[in-house]
Amino acid sequence: MPDGSSTGIGVSVKRKEDYRFLVGEGKYTDDINRPNQTYSYMLRSNSAHANFSLNIENASKLKGVVKIFVGEDMEVGGIPCGWQVDSKDGTPMREPAHPPIAKNKVRYVGEIIAVIIADSIEEAKNAAELVDVNYKDIPVIINMKDALEAKNGLVHDEIETNICYDWEIGDSSAVDLAMAEAAHITSLDIKNNRLIPNAMETRAAIGDYEHATGQYTLYTTSQNPHVIRLLMGAFVLGLPEHKLRVIAPDVGGGFGSKIFHYAEEAIVTWASNKIRRPVKWTSDRSEAFISDAHGRDHLTSVKLALDKDGKFLALKVDTLANMGAYLSTFASSVPTYLYATLLAGTYSTPAIHCNVKSIFTNTVPVDAYRGAGRPEAAYLIERVVDKAAREMGISQVDIRRKNFIPTDAFPYQTPVALQYDSGNYNATLDAALIKANYESFPSRKAESAKRGMLRGIGFSTYVEACGIAPSAVVGSLGARAGLFECAEVRVHPTGSITVFTGSHSHGQGHETTFAQLVSDRLGISTDLVEISHGDTNNIPFGMGTYGSRSLAVGGEAIVKAMDKVVAKAKKIAAHIMEASADDIELNNGNFEIAGTDKSMTLAEISLAAYVPHNYPHDELEPGLDEKAFYDPLNFTYPAGCHICEVEINPNTGEIKVEGMTAVDDVGKVINPMIVEGQIHGGLAQGIGQALFENATYDENGQLLSGSYMDYTMPRADNFVNFEVGNEVTLCTHNSLGVKGCGEVGAIGSPPSVINAVVDALSELGVDDISMPATSEKIWNAINNASKK
Amino acid sequence: MYDLEYTKPENIKNAVIDFDKSNDGKYLAGGMTLIPTLKARLSSPDVLIDLKSANLNSITVTSSNVVVGSMTKHSEVANSKEITRSIPSLSNLAGRIGDHMVRNSGTIGGSVANNDPSACYPSAVLALGATVTTDQRSISSIDFFKGMFETCLKPNEIITEISFPIPDKSAYIKFPNPASRYAMVGVFVAKTGSDVKVAITGASEDGVFRSSEIEKALSSDFSIESIQDIQIKSEGLINDMHASRNYRAHLIIEMTKRAVVKINSI
Questions:
Q1: I need a surface site. Which of A128, A492, B197, B263 has the fewest CB within 10 A?
Q2: B201 shares a domain with B148
Q3: How many CA atoms lie within 13 A of B85 on its CB side?
Q4: Contact A711 B179 (CB under 8 A)
Q5: Å from A153 to nearest chain B CA?
Q6: Does the reported pTM lie above 0.90?
Q7: Do A708 and B179 touch (CB under 8 A)?
Q8: Is A716 at the interface with chain B, CB within 8 A?
């Protein structure tokens, strides 16, 4: 058995969890079956906006049908929103009722209108076809600009507007003043395209009510089982925590889309009591497209004011953010506190103002998706900076260096609330320039030109805020939850360890990374450490995994729990070895009396703790099992430089990514291989947004991109080998010095790709292209430019 | 999927008997279109007649023709050394349909009988002037395709093999739909002596078609210059979220040019 030194911090330990996944032994929600289980089919609206009525009589009589529920049957609370955002005039956001099953009116294609429960899923689907639905269509609101005018129609009549809130941040008069005095103002209108998350595992849920004990169990594809227990138990179904167990077993990817509390979870839990049998629901892929919360979907106008030397004076941003038809769990926070607070980017822009109107439309609800608000911020900043450089004849590198927050300015207070603790933006830029062979770009461009091709290079020097989040801060901003994390480190009698964490792994590799934290600190191999997560009956109250928080917050909680374990172990060792606890030092897993050759291993101490024959009973309780909650002092601020190089065929608009370099500062790296994997995944999603992915609705509110035939998921052959590097500055407010790596790829890369496209086309006079930059869009841009 | 009866006849005769006995039976070839359609409940045959065991899997190459049995999989055409020697563009086409899983299930007969307007194979059948043989007759490629998802096949008729005359040179260039990877525009050019046939898939609302305009230009001068100024009419071309009809019209010429360059480099 290897000791801790080979599996500690900084080692690319192979992922412990991969064996069971690779041999097909992962246990996902749909793999779980309960005795006497039923299957539910969610009948969904195929109209985007309609008053409806339905007749279930014929369907109810069909063989195998156990029960059909409609909206009126389910008298429970509405699906709640977890973050209150107030408008600039102080009024709270508008929160229209969100019943789990629609009653009388539907507001998007995909909304649940009836739940058919049967002995088999095929029987449930057969019955669904016999449900007679009568829709009376109402004019549909799809376009956010149309939605601004109530006369064009209302998604929710009772709130008399489609605007959820009209929010602002920053100093608008300072911005206006700077704009008036600026030597140059660069303007840009930006659309941040709507994306569909597409986790590999579709959502699923099983509700299982045990009549004899009154216990409910919900198995669900969630990134945060305790959050679901709280939201669903307290707000929707009125179930106390001690009677509700939520289990999120192996989960196959989330990207944010499995943070939220969805109607299906409440429906199966509630229905299992009503019919006294377990109720299972598994989304199929087509269903996922119209029922998983979508991401992004902003329309933004941005103005950047500069002095004559290209120094940024002010940034003014106006954004319309699509909420879809209802407020999903964290929808309100994404285009405000996770977005506008990042608008300083990596630059020392002194004045910033942002106004955000969030808008209801007859579309699937929009919520957090990998990066959540921060990609939208990074995209607009890096695009407008790029355009300003072009307009002022400054190089893309120089304009950034000129405006970077200097390394000696940290901690740096931005004009939009956040205080960055650390960073070195020139370091990541320098390293990326070398990795991307920037100096020889002109010769590559010339070589492309010889073949009739256009070549471009694009930059993004982004920052983001993750490690979500200090509870007091987010509470003051309207969050209806704390954002701490918990951990319990249980040392077993013979020295192996189980860590119970409130974080949830759905692809991130926590079972390995967290084990490395233990290995490093306590000097035992990761083979002796098991990470347990996902079951509210096993783990202490935890907030789950999103916002690149698991290591910076969840990992830190494990460290705090280990601190307690070590402190207690020292006291036990001191008692047994007849020394003072102050003289005990922990070295490579040995508790040594300083200056002597006397020592005890952790296993010896834990055995003494559980077989306490010789034990300081007057001072200590038996056992070696400690719990800690950790609430961070600040967000963490990963940053970096992404450089993309593209080649474009001007005859067809075909585009090929020729180079993608990402040098990121994610703080201290625990497992370099896992971090690199996270960066790769993020880059794939970022390039996907920039060039391929686009959720498209027609004017009737039908999702045109409703399958992989029409929604372009990027594939391996759309990419090049990614050049990934890191330049570390440590987070100053957690003991590990970690920042977070889960989202940086998706946040930083899209503007670098689009800036590269614009760079390639700039010689033709093209100065803007929207995402996704498809070949036809590029071809049109070339044609339109040549007509000018 | 709805309940249905499944049969796996061991020869064509029994397959036709199964079909004739059914109310609304369907033949199953590779199932790459039919199975998803069934799973989505968009089709509800009472009997599914699987042709897997009906001995329709073969590749025969003579000095003049490549003859492919209708149940031959894309991967088998792609990997056939004989086909690669005689009509390399055909094996190349087959090797770029879908992904490995599709190529190891999908069949040439299924693709041609389905006549998806964006499928690759129909362009090869048309441009190479192939003959489609069924259990009942032989059909010239010109007569076979009748518009989007339509062919001249009778309901119970089964394609048994497709015979491709070997051209002097040929090339297939596909501009894939970025999402589905079907052809958004696919152009198959075949040249035998001065005779040039050009078949285009993925582009027209009527499915695969031959362009007499391009054929005429290339027959008199097989160069990209000869087609440079041809304006393909966009009327009748597919107009969707992936490509406008104007873009498709443009791509037809661009892909044809690539095919010409490729042929001229052989």
A1: A492
A2: no
A3: 9
A4: yes
A5: 26
A6: yes
A7: yes
A8: no
